[in-house]
Specification:
Elements: E1 7-10, E2 16-18, E3 34-40, H1 48-54, E4 58-63, E5 68-73, H2 78-82, E6 88-93, E7 96-101, H3 133-138, E8 155-160, E9 180-181, H4 195-204, E10 217-222, E11 229-231, H5 232-244, E12 249-252, E13 254-259, H6 271-285, E14 289-293, H7 304-315, E15 323-325, E16 334-339, E17 359-362, H8 368-376, E18 392-395, E19 418-421, H9 424-441, H10 447-456, H11 477-481
Parallel strand pairs: 8-10, 8-12, 9-10, 12-14, 14-16, 16-17
Antiparallel strand pairs: 1-13, 2-7, 3-5, 3-6, 4-5, 7-11, 13-15, 18-19
Helix pairs in contact: 4-9, 5-6, 9-10
């Protein structure tokens, strides 16, 4: 079988990205334990446990709803042995993902503007609404709140790093009891990174910062540990669990490049990708609207050669055949690109784009000066040209976390509990919040109807009609609630 490489990324430009492990073939006698995903044809056969054990493996996780099993083995012959089972559609080394800190994340770093002005927050202020350009635009300066704020019966699942359940802007809208962790060795879904709390705030914060639906419920499905590592089956398991729990919407601010089937497995798609696809389709069939980020690679989904060049330039790999992005290009999801504050014609410099984009949402960027320099030469160093006020402000853990220094790095602690971030990670939850409010207003809507409502009420930025940058346009919950036809 050919080697595989996949990169998953939490789609936040400031804080972190995920880098996939590259499976290697070991010939030494002392074999290391490996993790595998096994995708069975249809339902799990009655003897799947016996079959895995006979092949030299141990079962770690079973997702019976979609016929997926995670197994471990020290035996180098396990994979070939388990593939002899005629009930197996695909089996392979499990894709691994890791968080890595961004170069911006330094103790001495102070966010500000190119002229040296500090981007500050007054800890005594009752509200930071004046700094939420993104939320002002989505809600028509807060007018949507007078029409529908969502309700606590409508749950948005945040499949991410967890949530700070004690955050004053979130504590009335978070479902601590219903939240779950899928990270082995952990017992709760408290956020130890920061990313998930920022995402949750964009959906349902109600305090100094506001979310799209300040009365929606958010529930954490934690799939990333404090050390920044995740197995693909943890994500798959979380999707299925959220669907079984009856959530209305799932937000996944996660992206990843992959090769097409013939580059992954001689019999077809890789087992990890089969699992991902099945989980998403399972959720949709359960009536769940699935919202995903487009990714932060500045790549065109439609250009196969662009993606091949990306692999070559960044990793030195010659990829044969087309590549795809998951979950952004999984059928049925709402795929979100990132818009910015200052342009109605140009999305954020980092955002992926293409025909798979359904809508855009404000994910922020570093401002027009940085954008112009980056587009002229993406390899240049323009860190001193960033303007953080063009990023998006949301909740952040009120305690120190492994994912960054946002609770301590901003001098006197006045940023405690809040952070400016940018990325398609920040765009997707805006759409998840819009979808949540739509479901609150119309609980009878199925995922297709929710998606249609999201697209129809979007403001048509970019070229007239559907376009590869904005899709149907930038989402706007006020347009939907007021039945206003966007211009």
């Amino acid at each position: 079988m050919k080697k595989k490489l996949v990169m998953f990324s939490i789609c936040s430009v400031l804080s972190f990205s995920l880098l996939a492990g590259i499976p290697t073939t070991k010939t030494n006698a002392a074999q290391e334990e490996e993790h595998y995903v096994i995708a069975y044809k249809g339902k799990l056969p009655d003897n799947f446990s016996e079959s895995i054990s006979k092949a030299g493996g141990s079962i770690e996780r079973v997702i019976p709803e979609i016929g997926i099993v995670e197994a471990t083995s020290f035996d180098s012959t396990f994979l070939s042995a388990v593939k002899q089972d005629k009930n197996v559609q695909s089996a392979g080394l499990e894709l691994e993902a890791y968080l890595e800190t961004d170069p911006d994340n330094a103790i001495s770093f102070t966010p500000g503007t190119p002229n040296g002005e500090k981007a500050s927050l007054d800890p005594n202020a009752e509200s930071y609404w004046d700094k939420q350009w993104d939320m002002q635009r989505l809600t028509n300066n807060g007018e949507s709140y007078n029409l529908n704020k969502g309700n606590h019966d409508t749950v948005v699942a945040v499949i991410d790093t967890g949530i700070d359940f004690s955050h004053p802007d979130l504590q009335n809208n978070v479902d601590l009891a219903g939240s779950k962790t899928f990270v082995p060795g952990t017992t709760d879904a408290w956020d130890q990174n920061g990313h998930g709390t920022h995402v949750a705030g964009s959906i349902a914060a109600n305090g100094k910062v506001m979310g799209v639906g300040p009365d929606l419920t958010v529930r954490a499905y934690r799939v990333f540990g404090a050390d920044g590592q995740a197995e693909q089956s943890w994500i798959t398991d979380a999707i299925v669990a959220a669907a079984n729990d009856g959530v209305a919407v799932i937000n996944m601010s996660i992206g990843g490049w992959r090769w097409m089937a013939h580059n992954l497995d001689e019999k077809g798609d890789s087992a990890s990708m089969v699992a991902y696809h099945r989980a998403v389709q399972y959720a949709i069939k359960q009536g769940v609207t699935v919202v995903v980020s487009a990714g932060n690679d500045s790549k065109n989904f439609n250009d196969i050669h662009d993606m091949q060049a990306y692999w070559k330039d960044k990793y030195g790999l010659d990829i044969k055949g087309p590549s795809r992005v998951v979950p952004a290009q999984i059928p049925g999801v709402i795929t979100v690109s990132s818009s910015n504050e200052w342009s109605n014609d140009s999305i954020a410099f980092y955002s992926n784009y293409g025909n798979d984009i359904d809508v855009a949402a404000p994910g922020g960027d570093n401002g027009p000066l940085y954008d112009s320099l980056y587009r002229q030469d993406p390899t240049g160093n323009y860190l001193d040209k960033r303007d953080f006020t063009y990023r998006t402000l949301s909740t952040y853990p009120t305690y120190p976390v492994a994912g960054g220094n946002a609770t301590t790095e901003f001098n006197d602690g006045s940023w405690h509990g809040y952070s400016y971030l940018h990325g398609t990670s920040m765009a997707a939850p805006k759409v998840a919040g819009v979808a949540g409010v739509i479901k609150a207003a119309h609980p009878e809507y199925n995922p297709s109807q929710v998606a249609a409502a999201v697209r129809k009420s979007a403001i048509d930025f970019g070229k007239v009609g559907q376009d590869p940058l904005y899709g149907s346009g930038e989402v706007n919950i006020y347009n939907f609630l007021s039945n206003k036809q966007p211009k």
